[in-house]
Specification:
The complex is a heterodimer of chains A (674) and B (100). Chain A contains 27 helices and no strands. Chain A is an all-alpha fold and 674 residues long. Chain B is an all-alpha fold and 100 residues long. Chain B is rod-shaped and about 55 Å long. Chain B starts with 8 loop residues before the first helix and ends in a 21-residue tail after the last helix. Classes of the chains: A mainly alpha (674), B mainly alpha (100). At the A-B interface, α1, α2, α3, α4 and α5 of A face α1 and α2 of B.
């Protein structure tokens, strides 16, 4: 009993909690007062019960705040009492310590007196006195502990009750934010459907095509309903009230006779609203039939363009896009406001809308087997195939039979027409290849009957169905996709994770591994293809400095990233960095590798205006690295693998990587333009 | 008996401000509770306090979000000179639509 510890809780901490609860309570009290006052204020002018109902809900919101206030007050009070009890207990402990010290001193003195007395006999009461003092101190200590336990129990009970009073109103079980939201939605229904329908009524009146308004004036009205455009109740009610005929008029009316950049904000606002509403609304067969009636006919030229402009915005339901896409596709010869101008191509809108619903996109492509090849070989003057690439990547990412078929057919087509691929399509192609990175790796291995490799040594990480890529097709597709910085980023990111997952699986093995040999061969192929793609990019006359800079920084980021996943000695060979780099040997630090790559691919070619460009490159590198990390994290999650690289380099040789690079050059020899 | 129409956009905006203030206040309150210290000891108060703080901050955060959403909608209604209900029209400075 020589130790008298304080109770475990710190009164200062409890005091800080009490202060925080009081701060919260003050804030909430102010809100509750304002809400209750607003609800109680007389509003005699409401024409129907809707306004009163809304005010009643504001009152209920105030009541919720008041209830929260009561809970905060009760808990702060209980904790305040607990803080006082803790302070009392500490001071009692201090007293006990002093009492104990005094008793100890008294006992020492008594012992001293006995020892100094000749033939000293012990004082008969000394031991009894000491024992009694000890017992008294122990009783006081226990009484203090009991008092504290009582207050502590009361405090805990108040806190439990406060928690339960909140939770009991939500569910019998545990409290969660979703349950609370549902509760509030039940308590405050006026903010839901009724309001949305009321807004739709007003919008339908304001937007009636019979009113003589300019597109700019209509766009201004639409902006005031911007809050509601994604609300399915609002969108559905608005389109029903307008009806397909008036909606068609709105679509066709604002199409300009030519495109002037000055109109862009108005057009974006106008068609952005119509498209978002069209995508959000649940629409029946009759309404959709009314919208698409005679859509392919020549006089509906402006309607097709207006509808196409609207389809570039919003996210589409399957039924809606399934009704609209086929007639616009059928009228695909109608490419814009004027055959000489690259503006208003309806199929660009269709591609965007299909891209927002990959299942519907798959179905659209499956309906007619020639659609994919027609879309791939079409001339996309307005967006250079960007929307098509995004749509195909989204549809392929479904990883069902249709998605795998789209990936197979797209890569085959690109392999056969590498020079015909439009610029904008390349980024989407990179995403598509990244999605099927197993099959890209399988495709890169030559598995034909008389090839040196007869069985596929690379394990499959993603389940079936798989795309089937021929070696030359996939090499050319990679070459084309990697001409785009985004495409290369996607491919490298997926490859890095794919390789890391395979390395993970191989770490338990001992001895030479054909799997790792093939992975390093493919890594060499990929890096060489990228290098050749960049060479191509540098020769493209219209690639501006910014784009070239992007590609360089992408290369640096991606190479570093991939190096992180596969720390192979062969990396030295990847960039043909020369004898000094090779001399650094195994175990080279990533930062050093990165530095070497930067010198080769970034610093030297761009040494002029270094400061400005460095700053620019830093921004780009950060943006790309961020994007890459997201992709890597997503794929790693799907693969369910951690990217451990310990000891991986033992089984991967620089010779394999070099052989892969040589092989890639051979493969693409015929496809690469000088 | 026909009722007069007296609801104005200004009244709506004031209502929106009140509700928005509530959202902000609830948000501040949630932040205060969330940032309060947690007792690190093994006492029964520490356990009860942890659950309490979590529950209160969750409730207040949801109330704050909900109030903000309400305020946004009321404000949008005021901006577009329409009132909460399709049967309620505006008189102040706007052409009076026919009551449906």
């Amino acid at each position: 009993m020589t130790d008298f510890p304080y109770p475990p809780d710190d009164p200062a901490e409890v005091g800080a909690i009490v202060a925080a609860l009081h701060t919260a309570a003050r804030s909430l009290a102010e809100a509750a007062r304002g809400l209750l006052a607003a609800a109680a204020r007389p509003h005699p002018g409401w024409q129907s019960g809707g306004g009163d109902a809304a005010l009643a809900e504001i009152g209920r919101l105030g009541a919720l705040c008041s209830r929260g206030l009561a809970v905060l007050h009760a808990s702060a009070g209980a904790l305040g009492r607990y803080q006082t009890a803790l302070l009392t207990a500490r001071s009692e402990v201090d007293g006990l310590r002093r009492q104990y010290d005094a008793a100890l001193l008294q006992r020492s003195r008594a012992v001293g007196e006995v020892e100094s007395r000749p033939g000293g006999a012990a004082h008969p009461g000394m031991q009894a006195q000491w024992t009694s003092a000890q017992a008294g101190i122990e009783r006081s200590r226990q009484a203090g502990a009991t008092d504290l336990a009582t207050v502590s129990g009361q405090t805990a009970r108040v806190l439990h009750e406060s928690t339960a009073s909140l939770a009991a109103r939500i569910t019998a079980g545990r409290l969660d934010a979703a349950a609370l939201t549902r509760l509030l939605a039940r308590q405050l229904p006026i903010w839901g459907e009724q309001v949305a329908q009321g807004q739709a009524q007003s919008a339908a009146r304001a937007l009636d095509p019979k009113r003589p308004l300019t597109p700019q004036e209509r766009a201004n009205i639409m902006r005031t309903y911007g809050t509601w455009q994604r609300d399915p109740v609002f969108a559905g009610a608005l389109l029903q009230l307008l009806g397909p005929a008036r909606f068609r008029t709105l679509l066709a009316d604002a199409v300009p006779p030519y495109f002037d950049p000055i109109m862009a904000p108005t057009l974006d606002g106008y068609y952005g609203f119509l498209g978002t509403v069209l995508g959000s609304a649940p629409l029946g067969t009759d309404w959709l039939a009314g919208l698409t009636d005679g859509l392919t006919e020549t006089p509906n030229h402006l309607l097709r363009i207006g509808l196409g402009l609207a389809l570039r915005h919003g996210t589409y339901r399957a039924d809606t896009i399934a009704a609209i896409a086929p007639p616009l596709y059928a009228a695909r010869g109608d490419t814009g406001v004027d055959v000489r101008l690259t503006f208003g191509d309806p199929l660009v809108g269709v591609m965007h809308a299909l891209g927002t619903n990959p299942a519907a996109a798959g179905q659209f492509l499956r309906q007619r087997s020639d659609r994919l090849s027609m879309l791939l070989s079409r001339v996309w003057r307005e967006d250079a195939g960007t929307a098509l690439g995004a749509m195909l990547a989204a549809a392929a990412a479904l990883h069902d039979d249709t998605g795998a078929g789209i990936a197979t057919d797209t890569v085959r087509w690109v392999g056969q027409h590498p020079d015909a691929v439009p610029e904008g399509f390349k980024a989407g192609l990179g995403r598509l290849l990244g999605e099927y990175i197993d099959d890209v790796n399988h495709g890169l291995i030559d598995l034909r009957p008389n090839s040196p490799t007869t069985e596929n040594p690379l394990p499959t990480l993603i389940g079936p169905p798989h795309a089937q890529f021929q070696q030359l097709d996939v090499a050319r597709a990679l070459y084309v996709a990697m001409q785009s910085a985004d495409g290369a980023a996607d491919i490298y990111a997926h490859q890095a994770v794919y390789a890391a997952a395979i390395i993970d699986r191989q770490l338990g093995e001992r001895g030479p591994s054909s799997t790792l040999a093939e992975i390093s061969l493919n890594y060499g192929r990929l890096s060489k293809i990228h290098e050749l793609a960049l060479t191509h990019d540098a020769t493209v006359a219209h690639a501006d400095e910014q784009e070239r800079l992007r590609n360089r920084t992408t290369w640096v980021t991606m190479a570093t990233m991939a190096a992180g996943a596969i720390p192979i000695p062969g990396l030295m060979q990847l960039g043909r960095l020369g004898a000094t780099a090779v001399g650094l040997g195994k175990g080279i630090g990533l930062s050093r590798i990165s530095q070497l790559l930067k010198e080769k691919y970034y610093a030297t070619p761009l040494e002029k205006d270094a400061a400005r460009r460095n700053e620019e490159a830093q921004k780009l590198t950060e943006a790309e690295e961020h994007a890459t990390r997201r992709y890597v994290a997503a794929l790693a999650k799907r693969l369910g693998s951690s990217s451990s690289d310990v000891d991986a380099d033992r089984w991967i040789s620089s010779q394999s990587v070099g052989a892969g690079r040589d092989n890639a050059e051979l493969l693409l020899g015929g496809a690469v333009r000088p | 008996m026909p009722q007069t129409i007296t609801v104005t956009p200004d009244a709506m905006r004031e209502l929106a401000r009140t509700v928005a203030d509530c959202g902000r206040a609830a948000g501040h309150a949630a932040a205060a509770v969330r940032s309060a210290p947690r007792l690190g000891s093994s006492s029964e108060v520490a356990g009860a306090l942890g659950s309490f703080q979590e529950a209160v901050s969750t409730v207040l955060a949801v109330v704050g979000d909900d109030a903000s959403m309400c305020a946004h909608k009321v404000s949008a209604a005021a901006d577009s000179w329409v009132v909460l209900d399709r049967q309620v029209a505006i008189v102040s400075g706007a052409p009076q639509p026919s009551a449906s």
